[in-house]
Structures
1.
Amino acid sequence: MIKNNLDAINEQIDASAKKAGRNPADIKLVAVSKRFPAETISQAYDCGQVLFGENYIQETQDKRKVIPSGAKIHFIGHLQSNKAKIAADTCDMIETVDRFKLAKILNRHLENVGKKINILIQVNIGKDPRKSGIQVENIEQLLVQLQELKNLEIDGLMTMPPLESDPETSRIYFRDLRILSEQLTGKGLFPVEKKVELSMGMSSDFTVAIEEGATIVRVGTAIFGQRAEL
Ligand SMILES: *Cc1c(COP(=O)(O)O)cnc(C)c1O
């Protein structure tokens, strides 16, 4: 089942990219494996899936010990400052950096262990009080502050728009995130020569996100099925 689902999602990624005149190779699929057992990751890895998304630090730590070493984990959940070190040790990318305090803790730890990590800034693009992420008006200041943290590689932006029943309603948020990234590049806050990563779109709306410029889509349910409730 996982193999068929992965094939189907990859086909939809290709089709949406082509529809938007984009190169499908510019879009990465993060398979969101939260609340599924480590064996599920291993199965998907055997089908060729390399990137996985996890939301909970304890779960990430447990899974990291047993999944294939080639599997890469993107942390996509809310990250508490007291869990930052574990995230830096166990993940290949942290998509949810949304405050300087957290970034400083990550950076200090990475300095100590002599490592760099790739991060994204989580933006609360829809001003949704139930969602984490920095507010748009504060992002420039954060990006300036981050320039002094040499062990963090800032690859781009991530967002979780307000939950909408119709994916077309999410389109405007995805577009806003892309426009924001272009404005920030225009202001020299992202290097012009680097392609800014945009992590946006989930099972219900990743095709729309790709049409609006997503370079990373985070898909769980459509690959692995319904998650167990907490
Ligand atoms: C759970 C989760 C996803 C995946 O959601 P699905 O609807 O299962 O595809 C994507 N991004 C984040 C941040 C999540 O927490």
Note: The radius of gyration is 17 Å.
2.
Amino acid sequence: MNNSTKELLTEIQKGEPVFWRNLCLTDPPAFSFSAADVATAEARLKRFAPWIAQRFPETAVTGGIIESPLSDISAMRDLLSQKDGLPFKNRLLLKRDDSLPISGSVKARGGIYAVLKHTEDLLFAAGLLDKHDDYRKISTEPITSFLRGKKLAVGSTGNLGLSIGIMGAALGFQTSVYISREARAWKKQLLREKGVRVVESEQDYEAAVAAGRAASNADPDSFFIDDERSEDLYLGYAVAGNRLKKQLDDAGVIVDAAHPLYVFLPCGVGGGPGGITFGLKLIFGKHVHCFFAEPTQAPCMLLALATGKGSEVSAADFGLSGITAADGLAVTRASELVAREMRTALDGCFTLRDDALFDYLHMLDESCGIRIEPSACAGFAGIRSVAPECGPDATLLVWSTGGGMVPPEEMERYLHMYN
Ligand SMILES: *Cc1c(COP(=O)(O)O)cnc(C)c1O
């Protein structure tokens, strides 16, 4: 380990915000998956689209495709420039996964995809469904009775539980969510209203996942959606790449050598930002630069990559608590799969303190009238390090990862927590 890594780790250990650049980048990155894997996931989502449109009428306008808008937030750029004393004139975009239909967070990508994939596997194996069928038959007998006998389980800090709980319940699965200490009360209540079994614990995310995995593996009728290891989750997220490409084209945003794209993604265990980074790199190659945002107390992916030890290291090894108001990012050990895939693909990671989350949350509401949850604000903290050196023709894109389902009273509380 060289001196600069040692210095970095000392800062991390002290709980100081840091910005780390990955020196192991390659072009192309060494991925274990291909564009064909992403195309397979896209095709699967298309097969389910008619059923989704029927079962979730809010998706009827997009024909059952779960997608979010891309917004220009130049008013937020101007406010950031002013407050940070850092004038930058780059185009600033917000990818609105906070407003993804069905579950209001980025987990409506990978989480829902993983449930659909498993459903298809079960129904194909039972001879109850064929690729060429109209998938609306999923809501008819004998499929409904068949799925009611099946179980799903997942470990979550909240949002993955919501996505899998809502989609699992809609398909008829008996769903159990093993939820960690961070989970907001309203998320647990909403799940119970959907008929989901919520197993609460006072432990962290890693322990909740372990408890869910052990219980599910002991039951032959239960399938565990494993956020620490799942290829399906990762590929479900990766579909975002092609979708964003089309939205950028429609908005007249060019991405090439002269017009690079910088993307800032909040990171928990890594599946969401990792899958999206994979999808983006497949399309834009070295012209897209992706950075992950993590809380100073839970920088699991930064530690995984900077030490080169992947999921063998935990934030706890560095004396960090894992406790943060960014509930979706309260993860102390990174996904092994994603740490491996990002090793030569991710441009860097940075950390921020909780109080900064609420400053951004408030500024985004003030400048653009957009209200998102604390975790979803983390990406904004990367701009100050990137803007001075990205050149005037670069586009900056902050990925907003959640907030669509936050109750108004809770949002009011968040809005009063800024400095
Ligand atoms: C889960 C989540 C993330 C990060 O996704 P991971 O797959 O855990 O890395 C970011 N923001 C929000 C709001 C989330 O719920």
Note: The chain is about 40% helix and 15% strand.
